[in-house]
């Protein structure tokens, strides 16, 4: 049902060890990353039903992030963010995804370094219904 508006799902503070980094000393070891994801989701109906099957579940997003954490080495935070953005937009209900990734304690002078990237449905390559359910 078109025209029913949107709602926002957030996952804040997902922390897990990832194989990430461009430098030789970062290869072969895992580094903790903190990930926040904000999804704008089409409602699909004027009122919510009290049934988890009718909404996008944040648990599905957390499980998908856990799978990515077990994945192969990635050099750039930006590339990891792209993977997360693609994963989110693979669900047709998601119209926008904002992905923030921080690498804490990467340099002694700062608390963390990171990226925030916004992905929009227009940019999505593929779409599958219920990809994050």
How would you characterize this protein structure?
Strands 1-2-3-4 form a four-stranded antiparallel β-sheet, with helices on one face. α1 packs antiparallel against α2. The chain is about 20% helix and about 35% strand. The chain is elongated and about 50 Å long. β3 and β4 form a beta hairpin. It has about 130 residues and is of the alpha+beta class. It contains two helices and four strands; from the N terminus they run ββααββ.
Features:
133 residues, alpha+beta, GTP Cyclohydrolase I, domain 2, 2 helices, 34% strand, elongated
Structural class: alpha+beta
Helical percentage? 10-25%
- Give the second-level CATH assignment, the architecture: 2-Layer Sandwich
Largest sheet: 4 strands, antiparallel
Oligomeric state, counting identical vs distinct chains? single chain
Shape: elongated
Radius of gyration: 16 Å
Give the number of helices.
2
Number of strands: 4
Structure summary:
By secondary structure, the protein is an alpha+beta fold.
């Amino acid at each position: 049902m078109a025209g029913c508006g949107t709602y926002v799902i957030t996952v804040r503070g997902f922390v897990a060890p990832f194989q990430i980094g461009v430098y030789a000393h970062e290869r072969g070891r895992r580094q903790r990353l903190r990930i926040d994801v904000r999804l704008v989701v089409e409602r699909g109906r004027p009122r919510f039903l009290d049934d988890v099957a009718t909404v996008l579940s944040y648990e599905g997003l957390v499980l998908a992030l856990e799978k990515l954490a077990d994945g192969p080495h990635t050099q750039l935070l930006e590339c990891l963010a792209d993977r997360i953005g693609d994963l989110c937009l693979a669900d047709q209900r998601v119209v926008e995804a904002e992905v923030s990734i921080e690498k804490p304690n990467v340099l002694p002078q700062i608390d963390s370094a990171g990226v925030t990237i916004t992905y929009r449905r227009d940019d999505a390559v593929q779409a599958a219904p219920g990809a994050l359910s």
